[in-house]
Design goal:
single chain; 317 residues; alpha/beta; Purple Acid Phosphatase, chain A, domain 2; nine-stranded mixed beta sheet; seven-stranded mixed beta sheet; globular; disordered N terminus
Length: 317
């Protein structure tokens, strides 16, 4: 047996939850402002993701290093996206793994000053539509709904903290009401979380109880986000999972109220037999899971309390 087959067999033994319905989520891969290269751990993460052969890879944003004054020009933005494609997009495509994205604040912030970055984000992804069933009413790539077998996926622009803009909320409501009831499971993803997971990012959340209620009312199973640079999975009082995807680039952060930085990581979501399973893989080799016991037992924010994920969660009705 050759080395590649031995490696795949070993991964199957240590990662039994990576069955046919597995998804991998990555986030916050960028380096310093204007960077066109990536830390070697990003390449190592992509290498191990390709080994795992998930059905889909999702980015919850911050793929390139924009959002700073003075603005980057078009050439600088194109060079950043070319660097991202070399390290992330192209290897996944060559491996035949679909890759879909949500916009991050460093990719194309909704703040008016970053219109050129938004333009280049849309230019970058307009011709890179993943092999998913993109549903009518979508506005790919900034906000869209897609179907993959029985899974319903919904991405929106969550790059502004505070209350979700009305236009964005209406889009989410419209797509959920049109499609989520037909799905076996529903995953909504964007960049900002709804809970203050990490130190120094406590104000960078979607602090919007009406939006949270909208997700609850439409049976959303998982809300996935980035931006806070730490892996955390918690369950709210309605039974919905909030997944904060760890960073692969930049700096890994400590949880709110603590000082110990979390490892660089990516997350894995598996949906099978009516249950949602969550795990992550940590740098440097991305072979070890971050134990749930290493995460805070609860996470408290303006929208209430999350209970730490420890065992698979039933899909919501």
């Amino acid at each position: 047996m050759n080395a590649d087959k031995l490696c795949c067999l070993w991964l199957a033994l240590i990662c039994p939850q990576l069955a046919a319905e597995s998804l991998v989520l990555v986030s916050d891969l960028n380096g310093r402002y204007g960077s066109t290269t990536y830390d070697s751990r990003v390449s190592e993460a992509i290498y191990t993701i390709v080994e795992l052969q998930p059905e889909l890879v999702i980015s919850t944003g911050d793929m390139v290093a924009g959002q700073k004054q003075p603005d980057l020009d078009s050439e600088g933005l194109d060079l950043m996206w070319a660097g991202f494609n070399r390290v992330v997009t192209d290897p996944l495509r060559q491996a035949g793994i679909p890759f879909t994205v949500a916009v991050g604040n460093h990719d194309g912030s909704a703040f008016p000053a970053f219109a050129l970055e938004r333009e280049h984000f849309e230019k970058q992804w307009r011709s890179r539509v993943p092999e998913l069933d993109i549903l009518p009413g979508s506005e790919w790539p900034r906000r869209y709904a897609a179907r993959m077998d029985g899974l319903f996926l919904l991405a929106f622009d969550g790059t502004l903290p505070g209350k979700l803009p009305e236009e964005e909320r209406q889009f989410v409501e419209r797509m959920l009401q049109s499609y989520s009831h037909k799905a076996t499971a529903t995953i909504v993803f964007s960049h900002l979380p709804m809970w203050p997971f990490t130190k120094g990012r406590e104000q960078d959340t979607l602090d919007d109880p009406e939006f949270l209620s909208l997700l609850h009312e439409n049976g959303v199973d998982v809300y996935a986000s980035g931006h806070h640079h730490a892996f955390y999975a918690g369950i709210d009082d309605a039974g919905m999972v909030h997944l904060s995807v760890g960073a692969l680039g930049g700096n890994a952060r400590a949880f709110s109220g603590g000082n110990k930085r979390q490892p660089f990581s990516y997350a894995i979501v598996n949906i099978a037999d009516g249950m949602v399973s969550i795990s992550s893989r940590a740098a440097p080799e991305f072979r070890q899971e971050v134990p749930p016991a290493n995460l805070p037992e609860t996470m408290v924010g303006p929208l209430g309390k999350l209970q730490r994920y420890e065992t698979p969660v039933p899909l919501r009705p």
